């Protein structure tokens, strides 16, 4: 039970300052009930023992017309006057008929969206013209800052379809963030390709949220988007959302004026909200809930999921951990094309333009019974003064964040550029590879665009590239030996098996664990074949064990004060990689000094000192006896 004064944030009419009693499935005490009846100045409609799920507030300026609030899935929303009168009449009828009994309020059972499999959740697409706050609403729904948000009226930040799981109260659904639509974009341009991709996604979507800017009103471009939506998805259920409505007010008529303009789109009643502040999310919840529940019940998704869980319960124990895979590299080397080839679908936008990808797009797919999360990052650029601000800087920061989260990193190189410059890796690519090694990630190098070096005239060039690239990579990155290099052509779409097999092999090495007994047998053989400079000062390893995987980390327990030198550590690391086939992943070896037990050491010292005293005493007795014998003789 909570008594609040000045409930200004809960009201659309910000000029009304009110107080109220907020309750959630609780019992009203007699004292609050009497005060509530006195303030209301109307007939008694609430019993002292009634249990309610409603939120009721009273206006201090006009006590005869109280405001009513309804508890909607962890939100608080203002009810209309008709709904408030209906609630008042129902409560009065209940109190008059059963005044001495507890009032019972039954609510309709809602679908439990948490029990539905992620792949079967309904899909909701956010669309609209550029710079209306689509990515901001996407971040608000998934409760994370995944999509890039930047105020660029003359440019498009979002270009690909981003997907996430929305958590709106008790609702769960897949939400998709799309690029801004310009219906009059020229054919073949980036905008026309993004619109075409959005149209393909519409065929797999159940609902659409059409966003407009409430401050600017409905512009001709918004009307064009509405016409485009009717043309590409005539049967799509569409909800008009007036974003950026935090500055509008009912008193001066700005909110009503914006709503009147939104009716021109022809998609029904609009919803006013603010993705930045969270205002109006309760109204969005109430609008989406019946539509999503209807879709779930019509397709019987809950029952299918229960059967699936019962059938697959025995296989859950054998399922493998998900693999986090990140594709990184410089701009225009074919990262997005490689992602589409691996997924076998046009998931992200591709083209000859450099820097086409800005957002880091994450996709989930299954490969040989294993769940893999694949991330396509933006092109890694060298930092300049122009890139310190704007979307480019945000893209670089997001790429670095996904580099830290990945298990295996795929570094993509351009074969044509290698052949022209006679150099395998540039400074930016060397920085990426070394950072991956320092973070302990698995590394796979992909040399793309090998189709440009085929033919009789390029045979020698093709052969020289395939031979020189692995050697130069080993020279540039000596910390990791045996880095796998795969030569592919992502444009042909035939490189999925070669790339994924190498990625899975590297990931299994990264997760490898070796038993201690096997390591110590290996250690005896390795130590015998190593040439030590000084046999007397040779470090003594008591035992060798692996303490963790991902990446493999070992500890050498040393007996004595002599430690392994850097040369000895490099020798052991190289021997581990060669004997256990751990190429392409970083291996770490730590040292620990083993000290003897203090009790045993002190007891041994006491025994040694006692023996020495006994020897001295015996020797003294012998000398004394010898002197006495000489005197008697």
TrEMBL record:
Keyword Coiled coil: no
Pfam families from the UniProt entry: KH_dom-like (PF14714), MMR_HSR1 (PF01926)
Feature: compositional bias, Polar residues: 594-611
Tree of life domain: Eukaryota
Domain GTPase Der C-terminal KH-domain-like: 513-592
Family of the protein in this entry: Belongs to the TRAFAC class TrmE-Era-EngA-EngB-Septin-like GTPase superfamily. EngA (Der) GTPase family.
Name of the protein in its database record: GTPase Der
Location of the region described as Disordered in the Swiss-Prot/TrEMBL record: 594-613
Alphabetical keyword list: GTP-binding, Nucleotide-binding, Repeat, Ribosome biogenesis
G domain segment(s): 123-244, 325-449
Signal peptide feature range: none
Coiled coil: none
């Amino acid at each position: 039970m909570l008594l609040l004064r000045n409930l200004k944030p809960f009201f659309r009419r910000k000029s009304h300052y009110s107080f109220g009693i907020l309750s959630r499935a609780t019992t009203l005490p007699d004292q609050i009930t009497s005060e509530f009846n006195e303030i209301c100045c109307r007939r008694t409609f609430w019993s002292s023992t009634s249990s309610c799920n409603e939120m009721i507030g009273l206006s201090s300026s006009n006590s005869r017309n109280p405001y009513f609030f309804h508890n909607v899935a962890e939100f608080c929303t203002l009810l209309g006057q008709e709904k408030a009168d209906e609630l008042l009449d129902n409560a009065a009828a209940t109190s008059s008929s059963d005044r001495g009994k507890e009032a019972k309020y039954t609510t309709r059972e809602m679908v439990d969206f948490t029990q539905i499999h992620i792949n079967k959740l309904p899909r909701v697409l956010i669309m609209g013209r550029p710079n209306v706050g689509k990515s901001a609403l996407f971040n608000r729904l998934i409760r994370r800052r995944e999509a890039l948000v930047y105020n660029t009226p003359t440019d498009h930040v979002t270009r690909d379809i981003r997907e996430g799981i929305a958590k709106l109260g008790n609702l769960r659904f897949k939400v998709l963030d799309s690029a801004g639509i310009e219906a009059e974009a020229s054919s073949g341009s980036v905008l026309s390709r993004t619109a075409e991709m959005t149209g393909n996604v519409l065929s797999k979507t159940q609902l659409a949220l059409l966003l407009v800017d409430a401050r600017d009103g409905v512009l001709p471009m918004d009307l064009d988007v509405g016409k485009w939506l009717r043309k590409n998805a005539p049967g799509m259920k569409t909800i008009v959302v007036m974003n950026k409505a935090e500055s509008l007010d009912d008193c001066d008529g700005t909110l009503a004026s914006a709503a009147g303009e939104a009716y021109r789109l022809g998609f029904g009643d609009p919803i006013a909200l603010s993705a930045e502040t969270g205002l109006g999310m309760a109204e969005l919840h109430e609008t989406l809930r019946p539509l999503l529940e209807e879709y779930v019940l019509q397709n019987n998704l809950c029952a299918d999921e229960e059967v699936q869980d019962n059938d697959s319960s025995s296989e859950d124990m054998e399922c493998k951990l998900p693999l986090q895979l990140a594709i990184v590299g410089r701009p225009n080397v074919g990262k997005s094309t490689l992602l589409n080839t691996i997924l076998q679908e046009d998931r992200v936008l591709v083209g000859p333009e450099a820097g086409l990808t800005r957002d880091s797009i994450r996709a989930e797919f299954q490969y040989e019974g294993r769940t893999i999360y694949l991330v396509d990052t933006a092109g890694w650029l060298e930092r300049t003064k122009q890139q310190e601000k704007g979307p480019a800087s945000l893209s670089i920061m997001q790429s670095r964040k996904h580099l830290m989260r990945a298990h295996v990193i795929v570094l993509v190189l351009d074969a044509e550029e290698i052949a022209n410059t006679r150099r395998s890796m540039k400074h930016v690519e060397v920085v990426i590879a070394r950072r991956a090694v320092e973070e302990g990630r698995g590394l796979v190098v992909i040399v793309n665009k090998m189709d440009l070096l085929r033919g009789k005239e390029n045979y020698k060039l093709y052969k020289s590239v395939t031979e020189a690239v692995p050697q130069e990579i080993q020279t540039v990155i000596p910390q990791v030996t045996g880095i796998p290099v795969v030569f592919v052509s992502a444009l042909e779409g035939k490189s999925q098996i070669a790339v994924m097999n190498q990625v899975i092999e590297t990931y299994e090495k990264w997760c490898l664990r070796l038993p201690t007994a096997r390591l110590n047998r290996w250690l005896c053989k390795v130590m015998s074949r190593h040439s030590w400079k000084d046999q007397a000062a040779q470090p003594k390893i008591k035992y060798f064990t692996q303490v963790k995987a991902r990446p493999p980390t070992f500890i050498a327990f040393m007996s004595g004060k002599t430690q392994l030198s850097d040369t000895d550590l490099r020798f052991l690391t190289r021997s581990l990689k060669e004997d256990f086939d751990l190429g392409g992943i970083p291996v770490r070896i730590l040292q620990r000094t083993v000290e003897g037990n203090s009790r045993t050491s002190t007891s041994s010292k006491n025994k040694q000192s006692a023996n020495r005293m006994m020897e001295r005493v015996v020797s003294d007795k012998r000398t004394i006896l010898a002197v006495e014998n000489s005197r008697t003789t």
